[in-house]
């Protein structure tokens, strides 16, 4: 699994292709592609396209040009031509050797087989590896059955685990054996494409009925697209745990590489991809037309229209379109509510749209910088956001099919676990290097890279450990040796190789030291604004080539002298750090900054003079309630800055749902937080158990040296079930002597979880109350998980005393008290030991009911709650 590193030597230009190929049969489309290809090479420089030694056929040469015409700028500058030529050859090899290859239409082969990139992952040599692994396994299968079998193979290799937002490459995911849904789907799409099967990653950018998002896979077989849960094999296609949630989604989309002209609705076209709407594959949809007007009632041409889903306490932009000359645009989406935000030249306006109810919505751009600054704060605006109703359709699966799939599932788990058993335990890691044990355990399949790195630098282990300390868990799992060595051997004391969640695939610190040697580096260290001036003079901004927002490596930026705004920001920080200048990209605001005289100074590339922005303070007032004593950022509220008429989220520390940390009202806003002067929007919301949201927004200003004080209003509805907290459904319990997740025992949906005080009167009352409502619990049909605090308690429990408990009851053990601790913390319970503790939660981690201790009529209380749940 050798990393692919760009050579910094100059490539020779070979643009001549020989005979014209038949890869693209549409002559007009080919002409357009050729024109874009020539423009791209002219922009980046001839050295980035070298086919002199590749000996490509006419078809392969044309396919290679197609990739270069549309790939992101980072892909052009950070990988050699030989890498893409190899992948092109492999694509044609699969088409020629697999039995279905001749049946794949040109359009689908071009856009959903040939492209290497799936999302924003580093590119690697996975296509060759996957083909070698899978060819014999699927060679005698139909295309339909091959898709199922490839997904079983994917499950042997990878299982789900939450992780940060950076996407690992397929081979990196393979090495670590886990991935979040975006990585699992990237892995599965890469495997399917390697075998000549058209495949695409499908995203719901945000769920409408609950927080979070999801990604899965669509694969084409014999004239039809099917969907599947990546690395989560089912007996049949068009089946996954997400059938029901997907039926409630507002939008599901995919990005087709290049200029794609298929049958689906186009959401937007960029220089890199065509975004297409797939929502109608999963849920009923309706179209709404939109008209954007100015304050004089005239249509606005070229207005940016953002379609926003309420999720994580913000209105998240899922789709962006532009209006035509008549100020019009339209969208087909699920049968629920979106917030529509339109802007142009700093003027903006917004309105709710209900798909399936509204036919046409008019938005007036009645806000601008002047009107925003007329008040310190404006009146709160409220929005009742309703998601689509559930309308799930699932294919038939017989008991025999389910039994066989479960058998295979368990076997595949054993294959993967045999591999992960080779990862280091804490005890093994401490024997190797006690100071680095934590890093060695986290490195998983990348352990040898870390072990060897430390062994090479025993003479300066402190520096080596310092570098490892800057890395995220995911970095430890996939960082290559050459990056570690580059950071170790560089002269700078700025050890971190990472600025944000960009790819780190090419060593750059030593390269930058040499590129800016002598007086130039001294000038930059003395005055970092000189580095800003150098970048403005020498680096050309061509953001249209980077619609995918793939960050270039610093070496790629230097070699091409062409980049986009994001890559330029990362480039500044990387160059500064490589020369010993402390610099960063601020996590909350996204501003580029450097340290001078103990203060962070802002970098503004568009300004001739550099100055740190003026600030003011925001204080939020809140009166704690019984259910919500301390509102959390992303759960209950967010803050966005209005920039050129469009909201930009302030990214505060999120924390982990089951660890009790992260940004909240009391630790950040109760006594005030400093913001740059400007106009902002406070968004709050309460997610009801039905999935609906009671949302509110308030526009306000931060003025220099002043404090803006606002109430933090969290709307409630006494007549409906509200989400009152969160509980991690993937928490581990012990059942029948095995450690299992709660989710694995309950399946998707709502469930009741209780920690019992065995033999205690409050617990006995609670169980008898549930016994009285047995019929209602049976009718509801969802699991009731009763947890003992120890093995001894489990043996002591007398089931016969409660012989009429619902048949949905199951038992488990909370061996280390983690479940009890989590409930007490998240529900803000006064006592961590008073039993019993009951919650009603769902597998999206939402808690809608909580009870502790002695409660008369508990069974009826819970019945009244779950009767309201949809």
Can you put this structure into words, describing what you see?
With 870 residues, the protein is an alpha+beta fold. Among the domains are: 1-97, no CATH class; 107-277 and 389-421, Roll (C8orf32 fold), CATH 3.10.620.30; 423-489, no CATH class; 725-866, 3-Layer(aba) Sandwich (Glutaredoxin). The protein is built from 30 helices and 36 strands. A 6-stranded mixed β-sheet has the order 29-36-35-32-33-34. A 5-stranded antiparallel β-sheet has the order 16-27-26-23-24, with no helix packed on it. A hairpin with a 2-residue loop joins strand 20 and strand 21. The longest helix is centred in the middle third of the chain and has 22 residues, at 399-420. It starts with 26 loop residues before the first helix and ends with a helix.
């Amino acid at each position: 699994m050798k990393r692919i590193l760009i050579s910094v030597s100059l490539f020779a230009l070979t643009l001549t292709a020989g005979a014209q190929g038949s890869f693209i049969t549409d002559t007009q489309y080919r002409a357009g592609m050729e024109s874009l290809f020539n423009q791209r090479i002219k922009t980046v420089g001839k050295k980035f396209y070298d086919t002199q030694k590749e000996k490509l056929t006419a078809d392969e040469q044309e396919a290679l040009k197609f990739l270069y015409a549309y790939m992101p700028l980072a892909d052009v500058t950070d990988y050699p031509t030989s890498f893409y030529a190899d992948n092109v050859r492999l694509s044609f090899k699969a088409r020629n050797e697999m039995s279905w290859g001749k049946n794949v239409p040109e359009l689908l082969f071009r856009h959903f087989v040939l492209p290497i990139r799936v999302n924003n992952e580093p590119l690697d040599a996975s296509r060759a590896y996957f083909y070698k692994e899978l060819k014999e396994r699927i060679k005698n299968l139909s295309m339909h059955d091959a898709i199922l079998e490839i997904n079983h193979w994917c499950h042997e290799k990878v299982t789900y685990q939450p992780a940060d937002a950076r996407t690992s490459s397929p081979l990196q995911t393979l090495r670590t054996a886990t991935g979040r849904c975006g990585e699992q789907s990237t892995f599965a799409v890469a495997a399917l494409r390697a075998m000549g099967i058209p495949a695409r990653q499908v995203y719901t950018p945000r769920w409408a009925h609950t927080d979070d998002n999801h990604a899965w896979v669509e694969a084409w077989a014999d004239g039809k697209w099917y969907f599947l849960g990546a690395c989560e094999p089912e007996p049949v296609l068009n089946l996954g745990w997400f059938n029901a949630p997907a039926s409630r989604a507002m939008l599901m989309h995919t990005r087709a590489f290049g200029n794609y002209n298929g049958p689906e609705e186009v959401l937007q076209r960029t220089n890199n991809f065509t975004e297409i709407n797939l929502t109608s594959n999963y849920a009923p949809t309706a179209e709404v037309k939109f008209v954007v007007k100015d304050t004089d009632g005239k249509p606005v041409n070229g207005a940016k229209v953002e379609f926003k889903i309420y999720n994580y306490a913000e209105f998240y932009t899922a789709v962006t379109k532009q209006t035509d000359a008549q100020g019009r645009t339209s969208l087909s989406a699920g049968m629920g509510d979106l917030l529509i935000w339109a802007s142009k030249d700093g003027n903006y306006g917004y309105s709710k749209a209900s798909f399936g109810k509204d036919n046409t919505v008019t938005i007036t751009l009645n806000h601008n910088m002047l009107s925003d600054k007329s008040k310190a704060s404006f009146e709160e605006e409220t929005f009742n956001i309703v998601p689509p109703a559930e309308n799930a359709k699932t294919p038939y699966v017989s008991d025999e099919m389910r039994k066989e799939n479960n058998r295979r599932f368990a076997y595949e788990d054993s294959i993967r676990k045999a591999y992960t058993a080779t990862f280091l335990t804490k005890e093994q890691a401490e024997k190797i290097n006690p100071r680095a044990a934590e890093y060695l355990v986290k490195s998983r399949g990348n352990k040898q890279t870390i072990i060897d790195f430390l062994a090479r630098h025993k003479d300066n282990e402190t520096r080596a450990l310092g570098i490892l300390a800057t890395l995220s868990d995911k970095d430890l799992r996939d960082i290559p040796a050459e990056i570690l060595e580059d950071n170790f051997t560089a002269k700078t004391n700025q050890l971190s190789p990472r600025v944000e969640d960009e790819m780190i695939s090419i060593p750059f610190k030593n390269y930058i030291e040499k590129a800016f040697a002598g007086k130039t580096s001294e000038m930059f260290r003395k005055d970092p604004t000189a580095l800003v001036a150098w970048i403005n003079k020498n680096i050309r901004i061509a953001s249209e080539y980077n619609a995918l927002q793939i960050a270039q490596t610093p070496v790629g930026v230097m070699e091409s002298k062409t980049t986009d705004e994001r890559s330029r920001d990362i480039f500044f920080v990387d160059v500064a750090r490589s020369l010993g200048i402390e610099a960063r990209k601020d996590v909350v605001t996204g501003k580029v900054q450097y340290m001078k005289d103990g203060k962070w100074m802002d970098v503004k590339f568009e300004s001739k003079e550099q100055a740190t922005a003026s600030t003011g303070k925001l204080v939020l007032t809140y009166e704690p309630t019984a259910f919500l004593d301390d509102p959390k950022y992303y759960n209950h509220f967010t803050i966005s800055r209005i920039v050129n008429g469009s909201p930009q989220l302030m990214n505060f520390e999120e924390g982990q749902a089951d660890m009790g940390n992260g940004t909240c009202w009391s630790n950040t806003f109760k006594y005030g937080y400093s913001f740059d002067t400007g106009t902002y929007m406070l968004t709050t919301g309460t997610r009801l158990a039905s999935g609906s949201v009671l949302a509110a927004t308030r526009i306000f200003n931060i003025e220099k040296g002043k404090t803006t004080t606002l109430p933090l209003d969290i709307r409630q509805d006494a007549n409906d079930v509200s989400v009152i907290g969160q509980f991690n459904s993937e928490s581990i319990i012990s059942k029948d002597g095995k450690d299992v997740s709660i989710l694995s025992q309950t399946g998707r949906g709502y469930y009741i979880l209780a920690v019992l005080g065995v033999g205690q009167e409050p617990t006995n009352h609670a169980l008898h109350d549930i016994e009285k409502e047995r019929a209602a619990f049976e009718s509801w049909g969802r699991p009731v998980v009763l947890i003992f605090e120890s093995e001894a308690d489990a043996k002591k429990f007398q089931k016969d005393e409660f012989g009429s408990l619902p048949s949905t009851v199951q038992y488990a053990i909370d061996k280390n008290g983690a479940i009890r601790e989590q409930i007490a913390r998240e529900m803000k319970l006064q006592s961590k030991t008073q039993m019993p503790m009951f919650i009603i939660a769902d597998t999206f981690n939402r808690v809608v009911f909580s009870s502790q201790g002695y409660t008369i009529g508990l069974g009826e209380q819970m019945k009244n709650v779950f009767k309201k749940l949809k």
